[in-house]
Every structure is written in structure tokens, then in C-alpha cells.
Amino acid sequence: MSSPNILISGSGIAGSAFAFWLLRAFKHARITIVERAPELRLTGSSVDIRSSAVDIIKRMGVEPAIRAASTNEEGVSWVNSSGKAFATMRATGRTDVQSITSEYEIFRGTLAKILIQPSMDKVQLVFDEYVDTYQELADGVEVTFAKGRPAEKFDLLVAADGLGSRIRGQMLGKPSRDQIHDEGVHVAYFTVKKDLLNGSKLAKWYNAPGGRVVFLRPDPAGQTRGHFMSVTKANDLAGKKRLNDTIAQGNEAYMDLLEKDFADAGWQASQLLAEMRTSTDFYCSLFGQVRSPKLHSTSGRVVLLGDAGYATPGIGTSLATIGGYVLAGEILREPTNLSLALQRYEQLMMPFVKSHQGDDNAMQIMNPQSRWGIACRNAVFTVVMGLKIDRVAMRAAALLGFSEKKLDMPDYAWPEEAQDEVVMVAAAAK
């Protein structure tokens, strides 16, 4: 298969990374990317790059571009109701052991653009379209589209269509919601067109009782990235349902809910609520893990990639980048046996993903529900970070070799000619 014909559903980080590496593996690959949005999504929250994804962006030649587009966040300060910081956790300055603030803090849309840029003139990118249904055949997969694009047959359908993947639901024969593990965390994101941090490059985190969080992050454009976070108790099924149902009703309904829930939260909540109403990029999302029982169809013609297969808050961007690399690499290893290639992809990714999905209680621990719980957490943070115990522990971990978990990736035999060409394109895109 010197020129595979592949459809990618989704032009985000996972789909873009996969397209990059597939073009390195097969210079004449035919790649179609369908994107539900009318154009590339250049907005979005801050994401980061960790673990084996750091090695991958270096191999792609895009690390300098990513560093240049960083949000310049230096760390996170926790503040009280008067805005006074009582604890600060700074970035480590390392890529092997990172704190809450990564060495590669970058806005999601900016990262997606950097990753897709080297492939833009080599793929067919179709906006305002998405996969409706598909039918697997002996020699491919027949795909029908929702917005009128003619049905077409491909060698492989790659579902990179996110947390609520329609393709995942069809592949498993169950509603896509069934594979989402609700962590009890819901977040609203939006840009404030003024600097609420007064020039500081430290993000600010404020907790109010009831699992309410106001979080401000720096924006190098002189703006502020605002977040309202609602953290429900692990066993509060009614609370989770209330938030999920409101998200399903759309942005206006969720903003109404936030105005009610955060009216008396304190600190900058009132100002942020007012700014929220004038923002142009508001969106809200569930923090959820996708725990799919498998990553590909039995016939080997449909595969899940990135959040569609293994969304994991905190490391999801890195998993998407790693997944794109591994999937393309395994197809390179088995170009005439897609079924075997997808099996090997799943065998590599599944254990690694599960090792990051074992414990989802961190957000509940970090964001107590009661005033007493917040006071206790604040006291612990004040001591630990005031004495720099956190930084000492991270340095010690690095010295002892306890770096972030990495995937033991095969050494794929990427064709040198294609490698040189793609790296040149990436360099030109900086």
C-alpha cells in the first residue's frame, strides 16, 4: 500500500499529528480530513505537552514553533477572597518532570494550527462536514456524510472526532455517552479582553465553598483566559446530571447557571461573570475520561484516535500526539495488513492510557467542598510551597530517574526522503 486512501474525522491535535506522520510514512498518501467547524478552530483553552509527546514534537521539528507560541505562564498562585496569594507552584524548567504549568503551555487552537500547517498542502481539508454513517466492506469502508458530500470509499476511517465521537458510538453499537467516565468536573472557558492579572505571568486559582473555582490564566496578547470550574462530589449523581443537562442545552443556558451558582463566590467572580457575557469564544465542557473497550473495529477499517478513544484530562493532548505517531508508525510497519497494524496500535496505547486513568479523585482533593476543607488545604499548600518542598521533591525525582511515565515506542523506520521533506515544510511554517 504505497498510497493509502484514508479519511480522518476531525482536524484537531490527534488528526493533525496522525496526518503529519502518515505523510512521512507514505509520501503519496491520499488523506481527506473532514471538520465539522466552518474553519480551523483557533480558540480554546490552554493545553500542554508531556511524556513521550515531548520527544515526538522534537522529531516533528515543531518544538521551536510551539515554544515561540507559548502562553508564557510561569506557574500557578492560589489566592484567598481578597486576592492575596498564599501558595505558588512554578514551572520546573524541565521537560522530564513538570508541574501544573508545563514547559509547553499553549492554546489548543494554536497548537492544532502548528501541527496541521506542514500537511495543509498535502491533504484535502473539508470544512462544515462530518461523518454520518459508515459501512465496512472487505476492501475498505464506505462513508456517508451529513452535509451532502457524496459517499466515498476509503481504506481506513480514523475517528479523531473528540469526546462525544459519533463514530465510536457506531463502532461499539452503543451511545457514545456510555464510554465517558464523568469525573464530576465541568469547566467554562472564555477570553476576557482585558488583563485581569495586571501583567503577572502567574495564573491565579481561587476556591469558594461548594466546589466552585475561579481560575485566571495569562494571555500574551494582553488579555486573560477566564475559567469557571464546578467540582461536584464523586457520588453526587444529581449534581453531575444537572450540569450535564445544562451543557446539553447550549451556552446561554450554561451561562445562566453560572450566574446563579457563582453570584456570591467572591474574589473576581462578579467581574468575570460580566466579562463572560461579552466574550466571543465561550464554551463549556465536561472533564471526562473516555474508557472505550477497544480502539478499532474487528475488520480493521475503523480506528479511534485521541479523545475519541482515550480522552484523559491533564494528559489528553499528549496522548493524542502520541497516538497519532504510533498509529502512523504501525501502518508503516504493516502496510498490507491494516487489521494487524491496528491491533498493534491498540496493544501499545491501551496499557499506557489506562496507567493515566487509574485515579480520578485529584480534582476533588484539590478543590474541597466546605470552608473547613478549603482552610485545611490552604494550610497544607502554604507549608509545602512556602518551604519549597514541592520543588525539592520534583528535583529529587528527576535526579533519581523518576521522570514522567513514557511510552516504550518502537523505532519506526521512517523513509528518509519523506522525513527530510516534511521537516523542511515544518521549518517553513514557523
Summarize the structure.
Residues 6-309 form the FAD-binding domain. Helix content is 38%, strand content 23%. The protein has 430 residues and is α/β, with parallel strands linked by helices.
Commentary on this structure:
- It is globular and about 65 Å long.
- The strands form four sheets. It has a seven-stranded mixed β-sheet, sandwiched between helices.
- It has a domain of 235 residues: FAD/NAD(P)-binding domain, CATH 3.50.50.60.
- It has 15 helices and 17 strands.
- Helices cover 38% and strands 23% of the residues.
- The longest helix is centred in the C-terminal third of the chain and has 19 residues.
- 42% of the residues are buried.
- With 430 residues, it is an alpha/beta fold.
Mean pLDDT: 90
**Could you describe the largest sheet, including whether it forms a barrel?**
7 strands, mixed
> Could you tell me the radius of gyration in angstroms?
22 Å
Q: Strand order, main sheet: write it out.
A: 5-4-13-14-15-12-16
Compute the number of strand runs: 17
CATH class of one domain: Alpha Beta
